[in-house]
Specification:
The chain is α/β, with parallel strands linked by helices. About 40% of the residues lie in helices and about 10% in strands. The strands form two sheets. The chain has a five-stranded parallel sheet with strand order 7-6-5-8-9. The chain has a four-stranded parallel sheet with strand order 2-1-3-4, with helices on both faces. Helix 6 packs parallel to helix 7. Bound molecules: norvaline. Norvaline (NVA) binds next to helix 6.
Length: about 325
């Protein structure tokens, strides 16, 4: 079988993303109704190599592989010394001689690519400076569950545009036909290559990709308002950022401009009083904990896709999602 990495959300086609989402929903229903999943990945050994802290990603991958019958080995930020204590190539060769999969959280996206180039087993991006594709699978699942479709919705991301989550969101939206708007202050725009790639993908799906510095304009008529921390792991210019981003806080006076039934999303950890007010993140429009829980379900589907492929399991997925009947309102 060919080795399939998941370094970018674009490593999945639109159809494959739908397959992962549908499979994740099946696994979620199975877990909630039967209390467990069928062990489909017995004896699979997954190595987690994390250069940065993690709650949701570590938790969901660890529980996901264990509920599917496999096993996880975790290396925290102080352990391996990727590229310092030991070269990336050596680390990768050693792990892939014993394990079946590498899940890595790194400072530099290039390190993921080096890991992959030197590995005989697949590599999953558990967050880099450029992308956070696993998060975006959970986000898409959450939007689909609530809105019952994805195509033609509009998602507005507010705040730090030069951000792993905004990047993966823009690409995921572009693939699936969701209009994507990013409102960010000057100097904190999204990576140009990512925007170009998103615009290219959007030509196929019909999505619109827009960048602006006006948060109020950006949220008008939107279905989803999304924000992330103003200070990602590895960012150093704290005081400058806290000042510049003030007008980009998602609060009630901003939410009121979105659609009446708009939802609020955040990948967490959140800093109440900075990028989002407490009344919004803890209010009725917020779906942040459902997003967090869905990390578990999409990660399982992703692991099955990596190890076994989903193509033969689910056929005739109709892109757009409106016709998919397994997604019941909870
Ligand atoms: N943009 C954030 C995401 C945390 C899950 C960071 O990189 O720290």
């Amino acid at each position: 079988m060919i080795k399939r990495d998941f370094l970018s959300i674009t490593d999945l086609s639109a159809k494959e993303i739908w397959q992962v989402l549908i499979w994740a929903k099946k696994l979620k229903i199975e877990l909630k109704t039967k209390g467990k999943n069928k062990p489909q990945l017995i004896d699979k050994q997954m190595v987690m190599l994390f250069e940065k802290p993690s709650l949701r990603t570590k938790l969901s991958f660890d529980i996901a592989i264990s509920q599917l019958g496999g096993h996880a080995v975790y290396f925290g930020p102080k352990e391996v010394g990727l590229g310092k204590r030991e070269s990336i190539a050596d680390v990768s060769k050693v792990i892939s001689s014993m394990a079946d999969l590498i899940v890595a959280r790194v400072f530099s996206h290039q390190d993921l690519e080096s890991l992959s180039q030197n590995s005989r087993v697949p590599v999953i991006n558990a967050l880099s400076d450029i992308e956070h594709p696993c998060q975006v699978l959970a986000d898409l699942m959450t939007i689909w569950e609530i809105k019952r479709k994805l195509k033609s919705l509009t998602l507005t991301y507010i705040g730090d545009g030069e951000n792993n989550v905004s990047h993966s969101l823009s690409l995921g939206c572009a693939l699936l036909g969701i209009n994507f708007k990013c409102a960010a202050p000057d100097g904190f725009w999204m990576n140009k290559d990512i925007v170009n790639k998103a615009r290219q993908l959007a030509l196929n799906s019909g999505a619109q990709i827009l960048e602006t510095d006006n948060p109020k304009e950006a949220v008008k008529g939107t279905d989803v308002v999304y924000t992330d921390t103003w200070l990602s792991m590895g960012d150093t210019d704290r005081n400058k950022r806290l000042k510049i981003f003030q007008p980009f806080q998602v609060n009630q006076s901003l939410m009121i401009l979105a659609k009446k039934d708009a939802i609020f999303m955040h990948d967490l950890p959140a800093y109440r009083g900075n990028e989002v007010s407490a009344e919004v993140i803890d209010g009725p429009q917020s779906v942040v904990f459902r997003q967090a829980e869905n990390r578990l379900h999409v990660q399982k589907a992703l692991l099955i896709w990596i190890f076994e492929g989903l193509t033969e399991r689910i056929s005739n997925v109709k892109l757009g999602g409106d016709s998919i009947s397994i997604c019941k309102k909870e």
